[in-house]
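Its record is quoted verbatim for completeness.
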Amino acid sequence: MPKLKDGDAQVCSASIQAALDAQDVIGSWNWDIAADRVHADALVALLFNVNPDSAEAGAPLAAFVAAIHPEDRERVTTLIGASALEGRSYVAEYRVCSADGVTRWILARGRYQIDAAGRPFRGRGIVIDITPSRMSEDAYVRTGRDGALHPLERAADHCVAAHRALADEDDAHLKLLSEMLLFEVGRKLAKRESGRRRKSMN
């Protein structure tokens, strides 16, 4: 996994894409709220333009918030703040400026815990890069690639579309089911990709 240096002014887009492709499709993070330290894996670091070493050691939340697209930032930070204060989970779809300067779409899910005094003390969650399906929902139909994709990859595209379609529906149960299915398909894809990489190294 290539490491980014803090002083790097520019990062080659192809190098970042290769790094992202080399990772599992799901990245994870863990926020120690009292210390204001977010510990995240390399995929999350690259997506949020944070040095992977710093993310592994723990970086302030502001370092990650800075990468959120300006048009999405207030909405997302308000959602995160409210979820943390209430000790509940959230799901959000928004744009980030990744380490190569490319704007990517992500789907993030987080969950917060509160202590006995009702204060938030920890948050944790996962992030999925959904840029391909968000930017070209019907690309597979237009190019004829759909039949060549693995069933899990096709399912992931449909799950993302279903999740977005239900966003404005006032049905918490349906939203929860769509979230659960999306993240389970994402986990299966990550496991499949890890197995594929291990096999290619043998």
